[in-house]
Design a protein that fits this description.
137 residues; alpha+beta; Ubiquitin-like (UB roll); four-stranded mixed sheet; two-stranded antiparallel ribbon; 4 helices; 6 strands; elongated
Length: 137
């Protein structure tokens, strides 16, 4: 890892026979990175300032906010990542609508309900029919 992305930190190495010595270890530097999705602040991540485009795509897909095909542009500016999607264009042209998901406090702790939500989301991204019902064993 390049030196500008690491910092030296004092440490004490202790061996199994009881000997000890002072040393230094290299630690990765992390900094806050603001992630914007279609012009709106989505989240702030702490990361090494490398491969930020890949970090943004992976995070947004993992969170279920977008799929890979929807992303049309990614721009990194200092400590900010700006991601534009097709959804932004559709919303501004009146071709789509924003939606929100509300989950009540009983459902959030219901394992079967959470598994069903995850399965439904996974089906959406794999192209399998959404009417398919899978139950945990």
């Amino acid at each position: 890892m390049p030196e500008k992305y690491t910092t030296s930190y004092p440490a004490r190495r202790v061996y199994s026979d009881g000997r000890a010595e002072d040393t230094e270890v290299l630690l990765a530097k992390e900094c806050p990175v603001k992630l914007f999705l279609d012009g709106k602040n989505f989240t702030t991540l702490f990361a090494s300032p490398l491969e930020l485009k890949e970090l943004a795509v992976g995070h947004l897909i993992t969170e279920g906010a977008v799929n890979f095909r929807e992303i049309i542009e990614i721009e990194v500016k200092d400590d900010e990542i700006h991601v534009r999607t097709q959804n932004e264009n559709q919303l501004s042209q009146g071709k789509g609508s924003a939606s929100q998901v509300f989950v009540d406090s009983d459902t959030i702790f219901d394992l079967e309900a959470l598994l069903q939500v995850q399965i439904t989301l996974n089906l959406r991204y794999t192209g399998l029919p959404e009417g398919l019902i899978l139950r945990p064993l």
